């Protein structure tokens, strides 16, 4: 299964979540940047408010694309201890990289939200959306942080991810909706025909569209 782009993936997720369309307490959170495009389509399908949930991966030394963990906007840190040991990431490296990503989270919150306040998640049905997962570290950190805000239900919605990662997320979230769990998984972008970079400007535009 391949998706044309993030918009198509989001529309298909919206259909898969159609049972929530009548609920009044749904809020959709997109993980920037690409996840916000998918989340925009989900929020549109469900007539639900949209916000960002900013979590940044902690990249391995000499390979920033390999996530050895992730940090959420409230400071929740999730580390893959086996991977940290395997790539030889020192405690000093992890601490410095975590701090660097926390600063980037603050920058993005200002850029995306400006003076707008965050949506309240307590006692609401929260749908957390990304454009796909590989190791799942970013989504896992987000899930653990959001749970501390006591939502009524926390649903993870993603177009594609490997079965073992989905299984881990199912242990943490109330429900996981994943459209495609390929037997052979190498990268999220491989399952999209168009997987271009999402700009900060597009994220801001989509958020404003829902605010208006």
Overall pLDDT level: 93
CATH fold description of the largest domain = Rossmann fold
**Tally of helical segments:** 7
- Write the H/E string, N to C: HEHEEEEHHEHEHEH
* Beta fraction: 15-25%
What count of domains describes the coordinates? Answer: 2
Helix content: 40-55%
Tally the beta strands.
8
Tertiary shape: globular
Described by strand count, sense and barrel closure, the largest sheet is: 5 strands, parallel
Q: What value does the Rg take, in angstroms?
A: 16 Å
Query: Spatial order of the strands in the main sheet?
Result: 2-1-6-7-8
Structural class: alpha/beta
CATH top level of the largest domain is: Alpha Beta
- Shape-level CATH architecture of the largest domain: 3-Layer(aba) Sandwich
Distance between the amino and carboxyl termini: 34 Å
**Low-confidence regions:** none
Short synopsis of the structure:
The protein is an alpha/beta fold and 212 residues long. The protein has helices at residues 6-16, 34-46, 81-87, 91-113, 137-147, 163-172, 200-211; strands at 26-30, 50-52, 55-60, 63-72, 77-79, 125-129, 153-160, 175-180. The longest helix is centred in the middle third of the chain and has 23 residues, at 91-113.
Care to describe what's here?
The protein is an alpha/beta fold and 212 residues long. It has two domains: 146 residues, Rossmann fold (3-Layer(aba) Sandwich), CATH 3.40.50.2020; 55 residues, PRTase-like (Ybab, Chain: A, 2-Layer Sandwich), CATH 3.30.1310.20. The protein is 41% helix and 22% strand. It is built from seven helices and eight strands. Strands 2-1-6-7-8 form a five-stranded parallel beta sheet, sandwiched between helices. A three-stranded antiparallel beta sheet has the order 3-4-5. A hairpin with a 4-residue loop joins strand 4 and strand 5. Helix 2 runs parallel beside helix 7. It is globular and about 50 Å long. The termini are far apart. The relative contact order is 0.20. The model has no long low-confidence stretch (mean pLDDT 93).
